TrEMBL record:
This is Uracil-DNA glycosylase-like domain-containing protein. Coiled coil: none annotated. Residues 50-238 form the Uracil-DNA glycosylase-like domain. InterPro entries: Uracil-DNA_glycosylase-like (IPR005122), Uracil-DNA_glycosylase-like_sf (IPR036895). It comes from Metabacillus litoralis.
């Protein structure tokens, strides 16, 4: 596991009231603040500390949002209260904070149509979030939650490249994380922003020997062009997955 920031924030985490639902007033506070830059604020969240180095599929978003942050803290506190190890607790926080609701449904539907389910030899890629979780790693270009005026940062204004804070995480921290994943993995960038940043990372000479599923739309319901984008790219995506499967037969 990569060196984490958990030790810095654990004393404050242990003071949180585990008997009530956590709110922004509990977590978006100075004691969990990592950095501020203009109107951007980055806060600590534990779920992206855990790295599944042996994953065969890596799904990459832009940055965690508020819901993921809340779920991660809630699960971490629960795990610690059950005397689980720190690594077990971080892993549980990661699983709790993964995709949920309509976004997960949209994601699984597109992954199935690309034949990703064949990697786990299962009926649906939903198994990657359950019994075949050992094959999956979920992460973000910016590993900690970022907010713009206390609203989820979407990756656009300001752009990641124009922000010294965000670009340092995208081009240094994320690169170090991806280097921990045993190649060759299948990397799935969610949306054009993530795809563009990964391409820039590779153009800077980072030798990350994986297969990249470029052209995969962001599964958010807010992405109104998602279905059209996917239909245009589906055959290309499916061909990439099938080529990867031919060369790599993961053990389930």
């Amino acid at each position: 596991m990569l060196e984490t920031k958990l030790d810095l924030y654990l004393p404050s985490i242990l003071t949180l009231n585990s008997t009530k639902t956590l709110t922004k007033d509990d977590l978006l506070t100075d004691k969990f603040l990592i950095a501020k830059e203009d109107q951007l604020s980055m806060y600590y969240s534990p779920h992206n500390e855990y790295i599944n180095k042996s994953a065969k599929i890596v799904i990459v978003g832009i940055t965690p949002g508020w819901v993921q942050m809340k779920e991660a803290y809630t699960q971490l506190i629960k795990s610690i209260n059950h005397n689980h190890s720190i690594e077990q607790s971080l892993k549980a926080a990661k699983m709790a904070a993964s995709f949920s609701g309509n976004m997960k449904k949209n994601l699984v539907d597109m992954l199935d149509q690309c034949s990703i389910n064949e990697i786990s030899q299962s009926y649906s890629t939903s198994s990657l979030f359950h019994e075949h979780r050992h094959l999956l790693h979920t992460t973000s270009i910016i590993k900690y939650p970022v907010f713009l005026k206390e609203k989820n940062y979407t990756g656009h204004k300001p752009s990641i490249i124009s922000s010294p804070l965000l670009s340092s995480y995208a081009f240094h921290e994320f690169s170090k994380e991806l280097e921990q994943i045993q190649s060759p993995a299948l990397i799935i960038p969610l949306g054009k922003t993530v795809e563009h940043l990964i391409k820039q990372l590779l153009s800077r000479g980072k030798h990350l020997e994986h297969t990249y599923l470029y052209g995969f739309p962001h599964p958010s319901g807010a992405n109104g062009h998602r279905k059209k984008q996917f239909e245009e790219q589906k055959q290309t995506l499916k061909n990439l997955v099938e080529d990867w499967l031919e060369k790599n037969k993961p053990c389930t």
